[in-house]
Structure formats: C-alpha cells, structure tokens
C-alpha cells in the first residue's frame, strides 16, 4: 500500500448475489483527512462503508488500515469508530453510559472512563447532559452523542454514514461545521457518506464521487467543481451548461471548438485534452455574463430569455440558443432587472472559465 496512507482499499468488489454493488474500487485515504463519498442513492456508498467497517465481507479485493491487512477481520477487531444512520443509541442507557460503552467493552478503568466521557461530552457541547436519556434529547443532540460514542476510544478511523440525514436544513448546516471542527481538533481520519453535494463541499478535504458502484472522480471540492472529469460529475455537482462541440483546431494550451448543431458558432477553450475530438463545453451559470458587444468577451453567444428566477442575491436566467438548447445563467440582480422575457441578449465568458469534457450522448 502507498506510504503515509491510513486506509488503503485495493480493488474492493462486493456482490449481493449476482448484483455488483461495489465494483473494483481502489482508494487511499490519508492520515487526518476528511474524505466524503458522494453519490446518488443506490450507488454503493453504504456498501463500501460496510466493507471498510467489516459488516460485509469483500467478494474480492483487500483493505489495509495502518499497514495492516484487515480484509478478513471482524468488525470489533478493526477498532473503527462509526456513526451509521440506523446505528441508534441504547435507549435504556444515559448519555454518559452510552458514550462509556465502547470503553467498558475495552475494560478501561472506571476513573479513566469518567474522565474520557466528560472530555468528549465537552467536545460535543453536551457537558451538562450526561445523565439524560436519549429520548430526552433533540435529534441534533442525539447525533452529537453518537459522534461522542464513536470517537471516545480514540479509533484510528471514523466512518459516518449520512449522519445528518434526519436533521432539518439549519441544524444540518450547523452540525456539518461542528463535526468538521471536532474532526480537525482531534485529527481523526474520517470517511463520511452523503448524497448531499453541499454537505460534501462544506466538510471535505477530498470528495470521492461514486456512481453504479464505481468511482467517477476523487478530487478536492474546488477541483471537483471547476474541473469535473466527465458528464456525470459535472451534472451531479452544482448547475452546469453543456454544449456539444467538435475540436477543430488545437494549440498548446487552447483550442477551437465548433458547436455540433450545424451552426458556425465557435468557442475558444482552455486545456482541452489531446485525445478529445467530440466534446462538451462545460460552463457554470455564474461564469457567464451579459455582454454588450461580441468583442467584449473571448466567447459570446446570442440567446433568447425564457425565464427569470429571482434568487435574492442574484437572478437565474433560463435562455434558449438559436439551436434550441437551454442555458442557465446567473447574473447580479441589477444587471438583469431590465430584461424582458423573449428578449435577445448576448452572453459572454472567458476561455479560462470554460472547460471541455468528453462528449457523451447520455449521462448514465
Ligand atoms: P447507497 O448507500 O449509495 O444508497 P447501497 O450501498 O446501500 O447504496 O446499495 C447499493 C446497491 O446495492 C443498491 O442497489 C442496493 O439495493 C443493493 N444492496 C445493498 N445492500 C444489499 C443487500 N444486503 N442485499 C442485496 N442488495 C443490496
Ligand atoms: Mg446509503
């Protein structure tokens, strides 16, 4: 396994009967890293986490934790901290007893247990609630206790499976930051699973995007957003405009892309890969501007306004190109105030804000 890696997954595959839920996944997680596995429902996220935890056995492949092959080990032998969505607190135990449980199992002396429980209670801001029972706590507080219980025995790895899924939006956002702070404070290597892209972007050092049991891309949040490697990732993270085109000319660091729709519209793109012929140009809505004239930007395109959606800090415009493709643009409120539905406008953007990705007829 690679040096300096905490967790190393080598070609892990999981079949349920004849169905392949995890398809030859290889992934290294660095010490102290917060890695999020992001993907649609059914993409194999929980299955992958269960393989790491030992709740399911790999059909083939191997898993290493701190240089040790743990592939065949039982869950309790792996010593991993876990917060699973359905991994509830013990209802008949107090908060303090719940948190103490992993330490009791490990036969830690009583006085040390008391000390360590108090320390993690402080960490999750529940210092005065140790004697409560789970049913006397709010959803957010219960999740805090679950996290405290998962980290109290200093595991080398923390696994979180949609830990905030049941919470409402405001509380979820607050808890995201709280978990991130705790994770940074104790420096614990963490793998979190979510289908919520905002959660992934907020919390992660790196994000691993999964689809159909496979990894599509592993990158920092910034890179994933700015340089998605394919159509699935581009469309899964944020909003994006994709226009099919053909590379007609290529220089060292830029290329000319002609749209596929029998139009003569030509764009100047940045960083097109040598093997790419047919491409999508991919453009985020916030990188497209209203242009006064065609010389104002490296790329311009005439469109017709279809819809204006007020978002508070900006306006989202839905527009249609001459070749009938819908585009989404996000512009400051003041710039869009005068625009009428049906009006023709010129959109502009610079080549640095546009990338090309492989052309695919349909995302799967
Ligand atoms: P996710 O967590 O990304 O939603 P899961 O890992 O739970 O995805 O499931 C991936 C696929 O594997 C789904 O199609 C699911 O129905 C299937 N699956 C999960 N667990 C089992 C199981 N124990 N037996 C059979 N199929 C399963
Ligand atoms: Mg799941």
TrEMBL record:
The Gene Ontology terms for molecular function here are: ABC-type polyamine transporter activity; ATP binding; ATP hydrolysis activity
Q: Which chemical reaction does it catalyze? A: ATP + H2O + polyamine-[polyamine-binding protein]Side 1 = ADP + phosphate + polyamineSide 2 + [polyamine-binding protein]Side 1
- Is rRNA processing there in the keyword field? no
What keywords is this UniProt entry annotated with?
ATP-binding, Cell membrane, Membrane, Nucleotide-binding, Translocase, Transport
Q: Which protein family is it in?
A: Belongs to the ABC transporter superfamily. Spermidine/putrescine importer (TC 3.A.1.11.1) family.
- What's the stated role of this polypeptide? Part of the ABC transporter complex PotABCD involved in spermidine/putrescine import. Responsible for energy coupling to the transport system.
Q: What protein is this chain from?
A: Spermidine/putrescine import ATP-binding protein PotA
Biological source species? Aneurinibacillus danicus
């Amino acid at each position: 396994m690679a040096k300096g890696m905490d967790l190393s997954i080598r070609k892990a595959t999981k079949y349920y009967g004849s169905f392949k839920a995890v398809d030859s996944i290889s992934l290294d997680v660095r010490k102290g890293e917060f890695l999020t596995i992001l993907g649609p429902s059914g993409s194999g996220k929980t299955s992958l986490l269960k393989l790491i935890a030992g709740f399911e056995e790999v059909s083939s492949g191997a898993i290493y934790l701190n240089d040790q092959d743990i592939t065949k080990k039982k869950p309790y032998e792996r010593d991993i901290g876990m917060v699973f969505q359905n991994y509830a607190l013990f209802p008949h135990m107090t908060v303090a007893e719940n948190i103490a449980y992993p330490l009791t199992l490990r036969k830690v002396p009583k006085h040390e247990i008391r000390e360590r429980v108090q320390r993690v209670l402080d960490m999750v801001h529940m210092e005065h609630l140790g004697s409560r029972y789970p049913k006397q706590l709010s959803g957010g507080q219960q999740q805090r206790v679950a996290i405290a219980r998962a980290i109290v025995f200093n595991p080398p790895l923390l696994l979180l499976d949609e830990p905030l899924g049941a919470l409402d939006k405001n509380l979820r956002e607050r808890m995201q930051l709280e978990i991130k702070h705790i994770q940074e404070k104790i420096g614990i290597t963490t793998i979190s699973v979510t289908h919520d892209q905002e959660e992934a972007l907020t919390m992660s050092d790196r994000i691993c995007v999964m689809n159909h049991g496979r990894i599509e891309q592993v990158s920092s949040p910034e890179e994933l957003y700015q340089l998605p490697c394919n159509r699935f990732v581009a469309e899964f993270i944020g909003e994006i405009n994709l226009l099919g085109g053909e590379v007609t000319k290529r220089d060292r660091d830029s290329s000319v892309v002609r749209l596929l729709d029998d139009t003569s519209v030509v764009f100047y793109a940045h960083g097109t890969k040598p093997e790419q012929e047919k491409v999508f140009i991919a453009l985020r809505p916030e990188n497209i501007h209203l242009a006064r004239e065609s010389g104002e930007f490296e790329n311009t395109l005439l469109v017709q306004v279809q819809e204006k959606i007020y978002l508070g800090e900006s306006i989202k415009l839905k527009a249609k190109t001459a070749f009938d493709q819908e585009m989404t643009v996000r512009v400051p409120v003041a710039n869009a105030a005068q625009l009428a539905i049906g009006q023709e406008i010129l959109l502009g953007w610079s080549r640095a804000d546009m990338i090309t990705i492989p052309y695919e007829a349909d995302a799967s």
